[in-house]
Specification:
single chain, alpha/beta, six-stranded mixed beta sheet, 9 helices, 8 strands, 37% helix, globular, binds uracil
Length: 225
C-alpha cells in the first residue's frame, strides 16, 4: 500500500460540509522530503479544521528515524506552539520515553490529524475527537510521512491512530502491545495514549497504564537494528 500512496493522494475528499478540496491539491509532487511536506501542509485546507485552528501542526523529529510515534491530533499547546506533543500529554510521553531508554531526538513524532479540533467554552478550548472524514482527509499526509521515513517500528498512541492505521475494529483494550502488520509499517504496535493516562481515575490505574506504555515502547524498540 505504501507503493500506492501517491495514487491514494489523488483520492478526492468529500465535496460537502467544508470538505471542499482534495488533499492532493496540497501535496506537490516535489514534496520529496519531510521538510518539503511540512511546508506544503502549512496551507492545507482539505477539511474544515484548518479554519478555527491556529496552524497546521506537522510531524517533527528525525527524518531517518527507525521508530515513528503517531498520536491523535495536536492539543491546545501544540496548536499554539506549532509542535506535536509539547503540552501535558507530551510531557508525560517524554517521561515514558526516558523510562524506556529512548531519545526523543532519534524518533519522529506526528499525529493522525494535523489540526487541533476543539469546542470553545468561554476562554477554554476543549479537545474534540476528530471524525472519520477529518481523519480520511488528513491521512495522505501521514502516508507520505511514513513513505519518506520508512520506519522499522510504528507506534500508535491511542485508538484514533490505531484505528486509522491498523483498522477500524482495532481495540486498545484487547490488542495493546501486540505487533501487527499494518499497511503503513510491517511492525506496528498500539499502546495507551498519554492523555488517557492523564485522565485515569486513580493513581494506581494511572501508574499501571504508564508502566504498560513504557513496556510497549521498550517492546517496539526491541526490533530496531
Ligand atoms: N495529543 C496528541 O495526540 N498529539 C499531540 O501532539 C498532543 C496531544
Amino acid at each position: 500500500i505504501l507503493a500506492e500512496a501517491p495514487a491514494r493522494v489523488e483520492q478526492m475528499v468529500r465535496l460537502t460540509e467544508g470538505f471542499q478540496h482534495s488533499t492532493s491539491n496540497f501535496i506537490p509532487a516535489s514534496a520529496d522530503s519531510i521538510d518539503a511536506l511540512r511546508a506544503a501542509a502549512m496551507s492545507c485546507q482539505a477539511c474544515p479544521l484548518h479554519e478555527p485552528a491556529s496552524q497546521t501542526v506537522f510531524g517533527i523529529g528525525n527524518p531517518n528515524a527507525k521508530m515513528v510515534l503517531v498520536g491523535e491530533q495536536p492539543g491546545d499547546q501544540e496548536d499554539i506552539q506549532g509542535l506535536p506533543f509539547v503540552g501535558p500529554a507530551g510531557q508525560l510521553l517524554d517521561r515514558a520515553l526516558e523510562a524506556a531508554g529512548l531519545n526523543r531526538n532519534k524518533l519522529y513524532m506526528t499525529n493522525t490529524v494535523k489540526h487541533f479540533k476543539f469546542q470553545q467554552r468561554g476562554k477554554m478550548r476543549l479537545h474534540a475527537k476528530p471524525g472519520a472524514r477529518e481523519i480520511t482527509a488528513c491521512k495522505p499526509w501521514l502516508e507520505q510521512e511514513l513513505l519518506l521515513i520508512k520506519p522499522t517500528a510504528l507506534i500508535c498512541l491511542g485508538a484514533t491512530a490505531a484505528q486509522a492505521i491498523i483498522g477500524r475494529d482495532f481495540s486498545i483494550t484487547r490488542q495493546r502491545g501486540q505487533f501487527i502488520e499494518s499497511p503503513l509499517c510491517a511492525q506496528t504496535i498500539a499502546t495507551y495514549h498519554p492523555s488517557a493516562i492523564l485522565r485515569a481515575t486513580n493513581q494506581e490505574r494511572s501508574q499501571e497504564m504508564f508502566d504498560h506504555l513504557v513496556s510497549d515502547l521498550r517492546k517496539a524498540s526491541s526490533v530496531l537494528v
